[in-house]
Amino acid sequence: MTDISVIGGGLAGSEAAWQIAQNGFNVRLYEMRPTQPTGAHLSGDLAELVCSNSLGSNLPDRASGVLKNELRKLNSLLLTCAEETALPAGAALAVDREKFAKRVTEKLEAHPKIQIVREEVKEIPSTPAIVASGPLTSDALSNSIANLSGENHLFFFDAIAPIVHADSINMQVAFRASRHDKGALDEGDYINCPLNKAEYYQFVEALQTAERIELRAFEESINSGVKAGHFFEGCLPVEIIAGRGVDSLAFGPMRPIGLTDPRTGRWPYAVVQLRQDNLVGSLYNLVGFQTNLKFPEQKRVLRMIPGLENAEFERYGQMHRNTFIASPKLLRPTLQHITRDDLFFAGQITGVEGYMGNIATGLLAGRNLARLLKKQTPHTLPPETMLGALCHYITHASLKDFQPMKANFGILPNLYLDKKIGKREKGLAYAERAAKTLDAYLTENE
Question: Would you say domain 5-153+325-445 falls under CATH 3.30.1540.20?
Fold first, then answer.
């Protein structure tokens, strides 16, 4: 029997283990939690979501929607679990994070070919393996990866947003609505806290001057010009955005477009949106409000938001270190390591960002390892597909400018469409091409 290991029980590792087992192979899924905590996770459940509870848009003309449709065709377990534990979120797929993680854990525990091992893996196995240890890879395993590759790692800091209790939100001020009423159910899927011009600028000033938690100084290594400890642009702390200019938030996570305040009949000057975080609707997270302010400062500053003046916090925002490898030098588009055919990497450690990207690379790595063991050629998906484009990007990008990348139409080959057509029409055209390309590829190669 082949000894197959999947290291990491997050989104990518859980999906990878499932795909290998579904292909008839026994697999050991290693997860060091809860024996060894990470500093970001709260439980020992597999596939726990530590940041947002949204898996992105379901709309067919959005990049996230295209990737989801590809994963449905490829029989993703985690996408199925997400849809089974979904919460109202307009056009987005958001989940009850606790129920989602428990559903995934139950499915994997029940699979006869999956053995879940609760211990830290400190060295890369010499047998077939998938490393999906995520952004919080332990120091020991990080050193093992570095020794194998001969490359330093790239580090960046990531942030998670605060969560408040729903019954502490002042609904005399806040209102329910989805942007432009799209996907709204009943009164709307989001709670919105409106700010007038004066309130907004007072809030921005407070953010800019509030005390922050000091980040630990990690090794000052520089890998091809990328300094240790830089921020990922797709997950900036709200205070960093505020520091870039007083109007940055109003054009970013606090943009009021499409949200009409019922008290005034107009769009507010700025708005803070809150999204449901659990199935019973007792918790809401502040959308786009990742932060590294000290906890007392978070309480003081965020209570300046109209509607949150008496907010009770279930969880404060926090920062943690994310680690990813130099994939353009180390990986092939199949997600195989350049020096070992039977060693794959998947998830955030590869430089793929976003929950669906993590799931998707786990799926591809799992299927490709199974194909390798069956003496079949691992899949290199066409770059016209969203998953193929993600894998092509992380393995072909310039290392000097390499940053974590999530699904987006900008990484797909250009369609050279008429510039006069709308954004939705362009999205649908890319989606149609991706779907046809994947169908043709699977017909020929499965």
Answer: no
